[in-house]
Amino acid sequence: MTPDFSRDHFELLGLAVRFAVDAARLERGYRDLQSQVHPDRFAAATEAERRVAMQWATRANEAYRTLRDPIERARYLLQLRGYDTEEESNTSMPADFLMQQMEWREAVDVARDAGDVSELERLRGDIRRSRDEMLVMLERALDADANFVAGCSLVRKLRFLEKLEAEIDSALELTEH
Amino acid sequence: MAYSEKVIDHYENPRNVGSFGKDDEGVATGMVGAPACGDVMKLQIKVNKDGIIEDAKFKTYGCGSAIASSSLVTEWVKGKTIDEAATIRNTQIAAELALPPVKIHCSILAEDAIKAAIADYRKKYGGGDIPAESKAAD
After folding, report:
1. Cα B123 from chain centroid?
2. What is the full DSSP assignment across A56-107?
3. Handedness of CA A23, A27, A86, A129 (dihedral sign)
4. The pTM is what?
5. What tens digit of pLDDT does each residue of B66-108 get?
6. Cα–Cα dist A14/A6, whole Å
7. What is the mean pLDDT of residues A148-152?
8. Is the ipTM of this complex over 0.85?
9. Which residues from chain B sit within 8 angstroms of residue A92, using beta carbons?
10. Does residue A4 carry a pLDDT above 80?
11. Which domains does chain A have, with CATH numbers?
12. Residue of B8, B17, B37, B130 marked catalytic
């Protein structure tokens, strides 16, 4: 096979460049690609061919890891469209969103200190629901409306929820021990 | 990574933690968040009739450096005019707290928070004390 590293992750795994991704097709695309470049197939190949196969395998892993995670997939898609999600630099989130984050953080702190497992689980449920709603909005923004500015804003918001959920998970681990 | 003594001091004894009533006279609020680390910062200023920031409060959910940066800013702005407070730069915060490069974004967040509070003040109370156009003669 001819190595063409300029192809994007979607193309590489045989997917349309869209946010909505069929999980089964993603898995299949990844497996197909992996099987083509598996080291066993190159046992008798030249050193150079083996090296190329290795590069492909790395490339396939990277594509798969990126597209499997919705936030990474959205960020990558936005990059392809020429948009920077500004997760490192943009601090001006809508006030009501930040207020909600503060309230959640406070509630998590209180529940963690009290060792209140059911409250932590309830909060995690709220946060997951909010995340799922945002993912629906993200799909609409990216695939239906081509509103990439809104897409960037949703990626930034989702990062807060991701962090919050991770904190609840570690609080739950602590209380369960 | 080791925190500097000043960061630890602010982290263990944060100055001015808390809130004013959102609608108290002369109170303005700045809220900002850093998506990359999930930190959320609320910084409030209370401005008196002479346009001086007489008190400041903060509430930050984040790492030690983010808490120290906002704690430091609340100390610095007290006694300053709105215009003076608006000149605070993240580089000064980072230098004072000896923040390592990976924590510079915490000082940026604190600068953005005070800027947001000042913007809120100006929106609520107009130009405040600033004779902004008086330097037009320069």
Report:
1. 17
2. HHHHHHHHHHHHHSHHHHHHHHHHHTT----TTT-----HHHHHHHHHHHHH
3. positive
4. 0.85
5. 999 999 999 999 999 999 999 999 999 999 999 999 899 899 9
6. 14
7. 98
8. no
9. 32, 112, 116
10. no
11. 9-68 (1.10.287.110), 95-176 (1.20.1280.20)
12. B37
